[in-house]
Amino acid sequence: MAKEFRAPGKDVVQRFWQEFGLNEQRVNESVEALKNWLAMEPHLPEESGSLHEARLERWLIRCKNSMERTKQSIDLYYTLRSVCPELMCDWNPRSKWYQDAVQTTCYFPMPELTPEGDRVIIIKYLTKDTTNFVLQDQNKVALMTTEVRMCEDYCFTDIFILDMENYTLGHVSKMAFTTTKKSEACLMKAFNTRLKAFHIINAPSCAEVYIGIIKAVLRSKLSSRVTFLAIPTVKANMEKRSNYLRNVRTSVWWGVYVDPDF
Questions:
Q1: Burial of 6 (0-12, 13-18, 19+ CB in 10 A)
Q2: Residue 151, CA atoms < 13 Å, CB-side half-sphere
Q3: Which is deepest, 125, 165, 180, 235, by most CB within 10 Å?
Q4: Gap between the Cα atoms of 202 and 217, Å rounded
Q5: pLDDT in tens, the chain (262 residues)
Q6: Greatest pairwise CA separation for the chain in angstroms
Q7: Dist. CA 226–CA 180, nearest whole Å
């Protein structure tokens, strides 16, 4: 079975600190400086407590140890919470919308990093029934997950794998450009997400419209990282490029056959 997501060990933390010229002292000084800056900004809430300090540290790492970029990202994060409340608020996992969303779509960060320090995230439509499918809610789940990762996760970049096996014509009419564009801004800019690759598998012909929307909302540099892969190609790429799913030990996972010894 897949392993549970666990807090990173000291060796993992040290790896990311060293990559961006950080150590414990510098991290503590930078986090304290960000807290003082937030306290002086009347339009921004204060970040206090160990949970918020961990989030400020991840923000600093996501911005490559640039204080200026970190401040800009934090400012934009709170701006988007005001501008896009339909996506950035009401993050209650007990809400009916959330319970419906997780029954229709899976958004799952894999529990281990690749050897290069990247996080693989699996997205899969779980059913062809679109009765309870709401694009906005699916994207809110992704943003909620990213919010948790901001406090608990370390990674250099994200690698998305979108499995469209159950994508149908029923989904097509529910894929709105405006919602996708706003979601992209929240994910990429508010959380300063760095996208390494976006692999699409099992895409039916009716998925062309939504894939076109995805490419349209991404900057040209990121759009070029959206690729279509056949299952054999996925496996070959995993073997060549860091064995993305080395931690998966089950023969069937997110609708794709994976050799147990893979």
A1: exposed
A2: 11
A3: 125
A4: 22
A5: 345 556 678 889 999 999 999 999 999 999 999 999 998 988 888 765 556 899 999 999 999 999 999 999 999 999 999 999 999 999 999 999 999 999 999 999 998 899 999 999 999 999 999 999 999 999 999 999 999 999 889 999 999 999 999 999 999 989 989 999 999 999 999 899 999 999 988 888 888 888 888 888 887 778 888 887 654 444 444 444 444 444 433 323 333 333 333 3
A6: 55
A7: 15
Smallest CA-to-CA distance from 133 within 174, 96, 86, 166 is with 174
DSSP assignment of 97-153 equals HHHHHHHHEEEEE-SS--TTS-EEEEEEE--S--TT--HHHHHHHHHHHHHHHHHH-
Enter the tokens of residue 209: 């419209």
The two three-digit tokens of residue 98, written as one number: 């959330």
The residue type at 30: S
The C-alpha R_g of the chain, in whole angstroms, comes to: 19
**Among 140, 157, 218, 160, which residue's Cα sits nearest to residue 192?**
157
